[in-house]
Amino acid sequence: MNRLLAALVLCVVPALAQTVIPLQSREGDYIARNFKFTSGETLPELRLHYTTLGKPLRDAAGRVTNAVLILHGTGGDGHQFFRPQFADVLFKPGGLLDPAHYYVILPDDIGHGKSSKPSDGLHARFPHYGYVDMVEGEYLLVTKGLRVDHLRLVMGTSMGCMHSFMWGEEHPGFVDALMPLACLPVEIAGRNRMWRKMIIDAIEKDPAWKGGAYKTEPQMALRTAADILVIAGSAPLPMQLADPTAPAADKALEAHVKAYMGEMDANDLLYQVASSRDYDPSKDLGKITADVMWVNSSDDFINPPDLGIAEREAEKLKHGRFVLIPGGPGTHGHGTHTWAAVWQGYLAQLLKESAK
Question: For residue 258, is it within any domain?
C-alpha cells in the first residue's frame, strides 16, 4: 500500500523518489494458516510479507544472536527503512545495524504493504484486525516463518513504536533491547484519537464509500483524510522555512494532498487507522525485562510532550530511559523517528548497555 501515507512516517514529504532496495536484501512471504483474529474472524491464509538484510548467526546452542526486528508506522511498510535518512546512516558498512553483522527483519504488517489487506479483494469483509493481531503476526513471522528464536533488538517507529512496547510485555526474555521511536505507551485518546476518528468518519460517512463496496475511491473522504494527515505529520519549523509565504504554503498543501490521494485506498486506510483501538500497554510496562531506550521529539504533533505522559510512564520501566529530543532545524516533527542521524547516538548506547 502507500508509502506516501507515511506522513505518520515522514513528516509530509510525499514527493520522495522511489525507494532503491539494496542488492543484498531478500523478500518473501510467510503464510499463516487459519489465522484467528481477536475479533473472532478467521482468514484461511494470512500472507505476511517481509524483507531481510544479512544472515542469522547462531551461538553454540543454536540460538540466533544477531536478529533485529524493525517495525514500520501506520500506512508504511518494511521498504520505508531503505530511504537514505535511515538506511544510509544505519545499514551502511560500519553502521550501527550493518547487515554484515546483523540479521535485519523488516515486516509488512497486516493490512500494509504486500501483506494481506482489504484492497486485495475482501474490501470491508476483511477481518477487523487490531494491534494485538498485528504483533501476533509479527511473532509468527519471526518464529515460524524465519525460525528466529531470539531478537537482539526490536525497534519501531510510530505504530511500530507502540508495537515494540507490546513485544516487551508479551515476549519477555525473547528480546534483549527495545527502541520505541515516537509514541506513548497509553490508550489512544484525546486529540490523538480525535484525528483518527475524523478520518474514520470521513470515510464511513462519504456516500461514495458504499459500505466499503466502492468501485472508485471516495474522493471527498480521501481529500479530508489527506488534509488531516498533513497536519498530523507536520512540524512547524520545517514547514515555515519551506513555505514562508501564503502562495507557497497553498501550493505545497495541494501537492501533498494530491500525492496522498494518488496512493490511498479508503478501506485499507480505514482499517489501518482503526486498528489502534485495542492498544494500551500502560498497565504492564513493569513486565518488560529488556533494556529500553525510548525516544520522542518535542515537535511531535501526535505525541506532544506537554501531556507529561512519557515521564510518568517511563517510571514504570525497570530498565528503561526516556529521551526527549528538542525540536529544531534538524528535527522533523513526528517523522523525526525515521531520521536516524538525530538519534543514532542513543541507539549506540542501547546496543552497548544491552550487550550480554
Answer: no
Nearest to 166 by CA among 180, 152, 176, 153: 180
Q: Domain tally for the chain?
A: 1
What are the pLDDT digits (tens) for 52-76? 999 999 999 999 999 999 999 999 9
Task: Establish if 259 belongs to a structural domain.
Answer: no
Give the whole-angstrom CA distance, residue 33 versus residue 44: 5
CATH for 104: 3.40.50.1820
Name the pTM for this structure.
0.93
Strands 151-157 and 67-71: parallel
Q: Mind listing the pLDDT tens digit for each residue in 149-204?
A: 999 999 999 999 999 999 999 999 999 999 999 999 999 999 999 999 999 999 99
Answer for the pair 190, 39: CB distance below 8 angstroms, yes or no. no
In a domain, 241, yes or no: no
151 lies in which domain range?
7-189+275-353
Q: What residue type is 39 in one-letter code?
A: S
Residue 309 lies in a domain: yes
Instruction: Give the separation between CA 34 and CA 43, rounded to whole angstroms.
Output: 5
